[in-house]
Amino acid sequence: MAVMALDSGDGSLVPFSSETRDSPVVYPIHHGLKPPVARLAISWSRGNSLRVSVFRPPSGNDSGESDGEVGGKVVEVKLNDGDPEISDGQWRRIAYGSVSPFALLQSRRSSVSSLSKMSMSPSPYDVDWWEYVIEYSKDISSLLGGSNLTRGPIIEDPKAVLKKGEEPTSLKAAWELMEIFYADKQSQEWLPERLVDWLADYDSLLSSTHATVHSKIVDFQKELVRLQVIENDPKYWEVMSSALAVGWLDVVVKMLRLHGSYQLDQLSNRETENGLVEAVAILISKMPRLRPELDARKLGECFKSKPDFVKAWEKWRAQITKLDCSAYWVQCDNQHTREGLRNMLHIMLGNADSLHRATYQWIELYISHFLYIRPFTMGFESMYSLAQKCMQLKPMSCYHRLIRLLIGILGENTEVVLAECSREFGPWMVVHAIELLTAGSEQTEILLHEERDSLGGISIGELHRLVYAQVLSSHALTWQIAPIYLTSCVKQGMSLLEILLYSQSVQHNQLLLKNIEICRLYELDHVSSSIMKVAGVYHWKHGRKGSGVFWLQQAQDAVRLNKISQQLFDSVGKSISDESFKQWEGIIELLGSESKTAVGLEFLHKYRDFKKSLQQVSGGKTTDAARQAAESLILLMKNPSTPQRFWLPLLYDSLKLLNWLEQPLLNVSQTNLLLNKLQELSMARLRPDFIEPNLPTHALSSVRIALATNLGRAILEE
Amino acid sequence: MAITTITEPPQIHRLPQHKYVDAVRWLPLLSAFDRFAVLALFDSDSDSSSVEIHSLTPTPPALTSQSSWVSPSRVSSLKTSLSHQKTIVVASTIAGSLHVLFSDPMDASLESEISVADNALHVGTHFMCRFDGWWDGVSKWASPMEFATGGYGFSLQWWDQRKPGGPVSQFKGNWAQRMTSGIVHSIDIHPSRKHTCLAGGSLGTVFAWDLRWQEQPIILSGVGTGDSLTRSTSESEVWEVQYDRYMKSTNLGNISSARVLPAMICSEDGILAVVEQGEEPIELLTEPCAINSFDIDRHNPSDVICGLEWESVAILTRS
C-alpha cells in the first residue's frame, strides 16, 4: 500500500521508522497551497479514495491583510493498486457481464441439488453439471477479451511471422488456466495439448519478466527486413528451433519457407539443400497430435484415440530418424542449413539438450517435454514432478503471476491457487474461479464450503463473496450488482444486504426507486418500508411536503402521517384565511386519498369540507349553506378523531352559525352536545398538559354565550 | 398492402461506454448519410458529467464521439429538435439548471450554448409549479398553449396557458383500489391525437388518459389491474414511454381514434417492449439490467437507441 506524504517544503512530515525491509514509497500530493501547512486531516471517501484536507495556518494578521491565499484545500487521493492491464472501466464491464452467468449457475446449482435430494442421488454433480460449469466458464472467458486472440490479417504479409491480434490479458490467461485444469473435463485427455495452445496464446505475457520464445521471435521479426541471406544468420535457426520446441509448427514452417534455397534463381544449384528444407517442413507439418481437432491455420495431424496416435507417432519418429541418418546431409553445402535442420530434427526426436537450449523459461521447457519427450502423457499424472524438474533445469529468481498460479494448480494446492488468485487478480477472480475449483472435486467443495469458527462461522467461499460484494458496494455504479453476490451468502449475506440498502442515498427518486426495486426482488419489505420512511422524512424536512407525504404513505407510516396531520391542524387552525388554506389544500388532497393509514387525516378531510362550506356562508348569506356548514360542524365535533384542542377553535370559527339571525341552525340535542364538549374542554384545561389555543381570551365565553342563546332559541322553536 | 410476416427479432448491438448513461437521444439531422446520437454521460472516475454527440457508423454499429460539452451536474432530462437549420439539444440537470446547445446539422459539431440558472428557471416556470415545491414530476407540451404534467399518485394534470389559476383537468390515479400508489415517470402526447395523454410509471403501469373520457383511463399494462385482457410486461418502474411510430402493416388512418396507438416502454427490470391496447406486448429487448431511457429515430422509426444501467448503449434495428 502506498504511503502518503506531503512535499511541503521542509518535508517534515515524511520520516518513517525504516525497520521494514522494503523502503516505503513516497508519493507527493500536489495540493497547490503555499507552505507552510498547519494541519492535515485524512479520512476515507467512497471506495478506494482518501480525502486529504490540507489547512494553512490562520493568518496572524488582523482581518483585511490576507495574502490572497485560500485557507485550505481538500484533495482526493485515489489509491489504485489495480491491474495495470485492465482499467477501472473495463473492470466494471467485467463485473456487469459476469452477473448473468454467475446467477444462472447459482440457480442451476440450487435446482440440481433439490433434484438430487428428491432422487436420493449421492452427489449433485451429475454428468451434465460439467456442461453447466463449462458454459459458465466460456461465458466469463468471452467477457475477458476477444474469442480469438491471434486472428490474422486478411492479406497476409509473407514476412510477418507472428500474427498480431488483440493484446492478451493476464486475467484471461489465468481464467483459461483454471478452465483447463478444473472445468473442462472433456479435454482432460489431451491436457498437454491444451497447455501448448495456452502457451501459444499467452507466451507474450511472460516476456514481461524474462525472455521468452515469443519475445525472441518478435525481436527477430524486426531484423527480418534487413536480412539479405536469411539462412546465414544463426538467429534464424535459433528462433525456429525455439518455436518448434514449444510446438508453434505454423510459425516454423512459414519461416522455413523463407529459406534462400526456395528462390527461383537459386533452386537449380541448391537442389539438395532445398530438398532437405522441404523434407523437414513436411515432417513438421505432419506431426501427430493427440487431440480431437486443430485450428485451421495450425499444423499437425490429429488423433482422437491413443492407440492410433501411438502408431502414427512411431511412424513419424521412424521417418525423422531415417532423414537424420540419410546421406543427403553430406551433399548439403551450406553449413548453417545443415546444422540448423539437424538441430530441429533432434528437437523433434526429443533430445533433452536441444530442448533445453531452445527454450528460455521453465514453462517452455515443460511444454517441449510434453511435445517431444513424453507425448503419451494423459491427464494429470506426474505433471507436478515434471514441472519441478523443469524448474530446476531453468531456475528463475522470480516468477510471473501466471506461473505462480500454474505452480499452485499443478501442486494441487487449493489454498495456494486461491491465494494467488486473490493476490494477483483480485476479489472478482476468486469469487468467480471458486465455481471452477469446486466443480467436481468434493474435497475442494468441502474445503471451501465448510463453516469455520476462525472466520466467524462462515466458509472460505462465503468470505470471498462478501469481500467482493464489499468492493462492488463501494462504487456508486456497481453497488446494484452486489445483492446478487450477497444473497448467495447464506450466513451473513442478507444482513449485509440490508445494511447496503439502508446506506443508499434517498435524495433522488430514481435512485430511491432502484433501491426499492431491489428490496422487492429479494422480498425485503421491511427494508423498503424503512427506506421509504427515511425518504419521506428527508423530503418533508427539505420542504418538499408532497413528496414527503407520498413516501410516508407508501411506507404506511401511520405514526408520522399523524404527526404531519397534527402539524397541518396547527397551521390550518391558526387562521382560517383563504390564502393559507389554499396553500395546504393540495396536501390535504394528497393525504386524503388514502386516509385509512392515518386516522387524524379523516378529520382533516372533514375539516376541509367544513371550511369550504363556512367560506360559502361568509360569501353569500343563504340559510341552506349555513345549515350545511352547521351539519359539518356537528359531524366534526361528534367524530372521535377530532383532536380536543381543536374544539374551541372550531366553535369559535362557527360563531356566526351559532348566532344565525334567521333561525337557530342547531337543534336542542345538537346544542347540548356542543355544550357538553365545551364543559369537557373546561375540565381538560385544568390538566397541566393542556395547550391553550391561540385565540382571544374572550373566545370561550363568547362561544358559551352563543351556545346558550342558541339553546334558548332552539327550545322555543321546538 | 398489408403484408403480414412473422416478426423477426430485432438486431441488437450493445456498445459499452465505460461511463454511466443518464439519457440517450437521436439527433435529427439534415444529412441522409450521417447518423448521430446524443448521450448524456456521467463519468464516475472523474465525477464529471457531459453531453456528447456521437456519430453512428453501421456494420458493425459503433459510436465515435464527435463533440462534447461538460455539464455542471448530472443530466436529468435530454431532448433534441431541429429548428432554423440548427439542431438543438436541451439538457436539464439534477441541480436544476437548463442548457440549450446548438449544433451544426451537417457535422454535429457543437457551436453555442445558452444556460438558464436555477433561480431564473423558477420564475419562468412559476405558472407550472403552483404546487409550491412538492411537485417533481414530468411534463409534455401538447400545443404551444397546452401541456400535461404527471407525478405522484399516478396523477395527471392538463394545463392551458389561456386559463391560468390551475389545471384545466385533473386525473387522480385511484382507479384501482391498490394498497400502494405510484409515480408517473414519463408522458407522451401524439401530435395528431392531442386529446390523449400516454403515461408510464411505477408497477409497470402504462395508461392512456383521454380528455374526452376523463374518468376512465385505458390501461395498457400494469400489475393488479384485475383485467385479464391487459398483460403486464414489467412489474417495476416504467422509465419512459413513447408512441411507437414504426408500423408494419397498418397505417395510422385505419385505427379508430378511440383506440390507443402502440407505445414503446422501457423499464427498471430491463425490458424494452411495445404495448398495444388489447394485445400481447412484444418484447424487443430483455436485459439483465435496467433500461433507463430510449429514443425512437424520427426518420427511421425502425431504429431504437437505449441507455442501459450497466454503462452501455444498445442499438436495435427492427426489420
UniProtKB/TrEMBL annotation, chain A:
The lineage of its organism: Eukaryota, Viridiplantae, Streptophyta, Embryophyta, Tracheophyta. The keyword Protein transport applies. GO terms for cellular component: nuclear membrane; nuclear pore outer ring. It comes from Quillaja saponaria. Functions as a component of the nuclear pore complex (NPC). Belongs to the nucleoporin Nup85 family. GO terms for biological process: mRNA export from nucleus; positive regulation of DNA-templated transcription; protein import into nucleus. Component of the nuclear pore complex (NPC). InterPro entries: Nucleoporin_Nup85. GO terms for molecular function: structural constituent of nuclear pore. It comes from the Eukaryota. This is Nuclear pore complex protein Nup85. The keyword Membrane applies. Keywords: Membrane, mRNA transport, Nuclear pore complex, Nucleus, Protein transport, Translocation, Transport. It is found in: Nucleus, Nuclear pore complex.
From TrEMBL, chain B:
It is found in: Nucleus. The keyword Nucleus applies. InterPro entries: WD40/YVTN_repeat-like_dom_sf, WD40_repeat_dom_sf. Its main location: nucleus. GO terms for cellular component: nuclear pore outer ring. Gene3D superfamilies: YVTN repeat-like/Quinoprotein amine dehydrogenase. Keywords: Nucleus, Repeat, WD repeat. Signal peptide: none annotated. PANTHER family: NUCLEOPORIN NUP43. This is Nuclear pore complex protein NUP43.
